[in-house]
Amino acid sequence: MRTVISRRDAALAQQDLQRTIASRVARVAASSNATVGVPRREETPIGATVPASASPQSKPALGDEDVIPEIQPDNYVSRLMKYIPAEVVAVFLTVDAAMRAVDNIHTSIPWMVFVICLIATPLYLWRVMKVTKCMQLAISFGAFFVWVLAIGGPFAATDWYSPVYGSVALPIYTLATAIYEG
User: Fold this and answer.
1) Out of 46-50, 72-76, 115-119, 120-124, which region has the weakest mean confidence (pLDDT)?
2) Full residue range of the structural domain in which residue 100 is found
3) Is 51 among the domain residues?
4) Which distant-in-sequence residues (6+ apart) come within 8 Å of 162 by Cβ?
5) Mean pLDDT, to the nearest integer, of 122-132?
6) What is the DSSP secondary-structure string of 43-89?
7) Quick one: CA dihedral 74, 122, 147, 86, positive or negative?
8) Number of independent structural domains in the chain
9) pTM check: above 0.85
10) Is residue 165 part of a domain?
11) Half-sphere exposure (CA, 13 Å, Cβ side) for 164?
């Protein structure tokens, strides 16, 4: 049995992934200490007098205070995506979309792209992001595999694949990594 993903479903999955990547980038940017072009707030030294305009009862003007984003619990996909570099995801999705647009593509090419991205995941983390923990590299490797299984990827072209496999593997893998890290 061959499972075919419609262009609409692929577009929706890609939009969801782009939102996840955008939120991940925003979190990284918000948590980094290097803020370019943003002046630091002056801190009042201990024992100094504070002007009345800076009292807790006064409300700051719009833009004077940091905006605190609403924290929402992560779903399984967003938890898994935290382990996979956004660059590897972008490469895989771009090449996957290009391959889907071609009618006569050899069946081994999607598998080669999958394997290259699978191997690139821990290599990118190690060489570019300077991750040295072997377990984090292994978890990222497995996370990419499970993510591709969940979205179909080259697995969708096989006779044995069912979307249920990815739907089951995704929460189990997320739970297992949470228990291990806990």
Assistant:
1) 46-50
2) 7-30+72-181
3) no
4) 1, 3
5) 92
6) PPPTT----GGGSTTSPPPTTSSPP-PPP----HHHHHHTTS-HHHH
7) positive
8) 1
9) no
10) yes
11) 2
